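Hypothesis: this fold can be encoded by more than one sequence.
Test: take the structure tokens below, design a sequence, compare later.
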């Protein structure tokens, strides 16, 4: 099981480093977000340190829970550093563990067990979903389409 998680992290890092960091389109940005959410989930599971992602009006950022119980912003690895949304991309809704969160509290906390979530995003091309399952995998689809 641990080997599979490590292989998953390596694959996520490879995908992130192979070009999805560039801001060429909303699809590229969505793919990048898909990979970094999966990476954060796997990193939290392997290291045993909770990581949260907060979705803000103009950006999203990752933090880790320190030993004192406080959230510390992450700047490294660079994949988890704060990132601004590209024009036309915004969060419409977030459901975590089957509970829709208010716009003022859009965050996912990843821990030793994966957190199921559905993140609904609006782009200039339409609505997209990023769906995280209990195995820590994140997929992308359009509403009404099974990933």
């Amino acid at each position: 099981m641990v080997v599979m998680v490590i292989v998953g992290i390596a694959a996520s890092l490879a995908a992130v480093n192979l070009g999805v960091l560039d801001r060429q389109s909303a699809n590229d940005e969505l793919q990048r977000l898909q990979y970094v959410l999966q990476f954060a989930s796997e990193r939290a599971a392997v290291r045993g340190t909770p990581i949260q992602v907060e979705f803000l009006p103009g950006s999203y950022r990752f933090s880790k829970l320190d030993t004192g119980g406080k959230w510390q912003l992450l700047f490294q690895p660079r994949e988890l550093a704060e990132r601004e949304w590209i024009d036309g991309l915004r969060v419409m809704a977030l459901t975590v563990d089957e509970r829709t969160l208010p716009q003022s509290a859009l965050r996912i906390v990843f821990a030793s067990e994966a957190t199921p979530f559905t993140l609904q995003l609006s782009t200039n091309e339409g609505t997209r979903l990023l769906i995280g399952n209990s195995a820590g995998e994140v997929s992308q689809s359009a509403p009404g389409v099974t990933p």
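Residues 26-47 form the longest helix (22 residues). Helices lie at 2-17, 26-47.
Hypothesis status: open.
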